[in-house]
# Entry
Amino acid sequence: MKNKILFIVTIVVVFLLGLLASSIINRKSEAKYKYVPQVEISENEPRNEEWGKNYPREYQSFLQNSDTSFASFQGGSVMRDVLEEDPRLVVLFAGYGFSKDYNQGRGHFYAIDDIRNTLRTGGPKGPGDGPMPATCWTCKSPDVPRLMNEKGIAEFYDGKWADIGAEIVNPIGCADCHDPNSMKLRITRPALVEAFDAMGKDINKATHQEMRSLVCAQCHVEYYFDKKKPGIEGTPYLTFPWKNGMSVEAMETYYDEMEFSDWTHQISKAPMLKAQHPGYETYLTGVHADRGVSCADCHMPYKSEGGQKFTDHHLQSPLNNVANSCQVCHRQEADKLRTNVYERQIKARENRLKLEDLLVKSHIEAGKAWELGATEEQMKSILIDIRHAQWRWDYAAASHGASFHSPVETARVLGGGLNVAQEARVKLARLLATLGFNKEVPMPDIASKEKAQDFIGLDMEKLIKEKEEFKTNLLPQWLKEAKIREDKMESKKVSMTNK
Ligand code: HEC
Ligand code: HEC
Ligand code: HEC
Ligand code: HEC
# Structure
């Protein structure tokens, strides 16, 4: 009797297992046959809508990147005027483009619009004009790999931003991350491949899971423009400073050794570094990276529609999608998880703001010391301290998401910055006393963005007018030229006999 029951149970279990297996196989073949190619996608196809014809689900979710309604405590897809929110930054960036205009972007869909609109790219009147090099387009569009293939890499970086305005029109998209034939993830930006080479690593050996972060590391990283590349001196060649490592200290040493600076500070004359957005570097130091969680796991989680599981291409703050993002791994309530994120951000911000205050003071006190006749020799070590302290502040502030991606490292970097900034101010107090100034240096009124910009002497009206002229004169020409070019690109239907 016992054996008979066991026998029947076994048969039932085997039968059920069989059903399960066949349903899995069916699902798999369903997934495979889901993509009936409609068009042939050529090697350099930059148009997202062309790719979208073959992959409608991914494309539909991708189109949601145009949504700008979500705001979290410090992120989201709404546009934020960072200078308005925190006018101290105008002083920190005096003499540099970010003092004119610093908006926290709205996301991939707006990458092209936002770079056209920012006052940092100025109001070029035609090719050869304007403050920025062509290199500034590199992280904005799948037209970039297309142009690099057509012209060459160094040739792409050469010249002004305005020289190729008519060429770069499609916002960040499919060709940036995918191979058109296999749809495998691929690296299209040479700077990342070259940075791996410089570290003695081969990016082709990256695992599939690593690739789910490395596609993002093409753009969400620290970089600079190397103008001293042998053979092409003067070309602003996009380079990641990773040779000694990715920590705040390793990259600082890299820059110090080559005496690189992004600009000279207008008030303190310190040789400054602008941290771009070391998002990938800081993420690597966090617990999620340590456990093998990739950028895509949180920012591009799986989504289901009609029994079909696919990757959500709406790249956004995961706080707008906690269920698909965090709750795949964490059992806590959404509110709890959101609170966890905000707590880390609020705590990091506390020290970030303290450091900003010290930096503003040290720039202005250094300005006072120059005014009173300080010598280069007397100022040297002070200016290096200011450089290092602000680099730490920026490394933590500009690495979007770092206070959550890696709260302990972010706190460490800010703590280091506080210490270096204090040292600069102790030296400044001593120097000012030597120069006969024994009082507190008066601070300007920088309570609003306008007041701060006025203090550093920016002619905002002129900058805004130049931008308006660019938008009414040159930009429509770019768009017209681009349309003529793209109209000539074919859309090749897959012929039925070919299949
Ligand atoms: C464990 C989940 C997780 C991983 C892994 C992760 N992120 Fe994030 N990321 C977040 C959260 C949560 C935020 C905070 C969002 C907010 O403040 O609204 C965030 C913020 C960001 C932001 C700022 C977004 C905004 O709206 O302000 C960017 C950009 C970003 N992450 C990129 C990346 C990149 C690139 C990687 C990989 C190198 C990565 N993230 C890995 C969860 C993650
Ligand atoms: C080709 C360059 C490029 C690649 C590749 C790229 N990004 Fe971005 N990303 C950008 C730029 C530029 C912005 C800011 C655009 C703007 O708002 O104007 C941005 C913005 C974002 C934001 C903020 C969006 C928001 O609305 O809050 C998130 C999150 C983000 N990226 C995550 C990722 C992740 C995750 C990956 C990899 C799967 C990735 N990005 C790959 C260039 C890139
Ligand atoms: C910022 C990088 C990035 C961009 C831009 C991007 N993808 Fe993806 N895509 C990914 C990642 C990451 C995956 C997950 C791949 C994996 O794990 O193998 C993926 C997966 C896919 C897949 C495989 C099936 C699936 O859903 O998982 C398809 C098809 C796809 N993407 C189509 C597109 C199309 C079409 C576009 C443009 C409209 C696009 N992708 C833009 C990063 C990107
Ligand atoms: C793919 C799985 C995975 C995803 C997705 C994921 N986590 Fe985690 N998370 C982990 C693992 C693993 C740890 C390490 C702790 C552990 O092993 O229990 C961790 C740790 C944490 C911690 C504690 C570490 C710290 O930073 O102090 C928090 C908070 C956290 N996750 C929040 C989130 C939030 C919020 C999201 C969504 C934006 C998220 N996680 C998405 C796997 C994940």
Q: What stands out?
A: The pocket of heme C (ligand 3) is lined by residues 48, 51-52, 55, 58-59, 62, 172-174, 176-178, 183, 185, 212, 215, 296, 300, 310-311, 313 (CB under 6 Å).
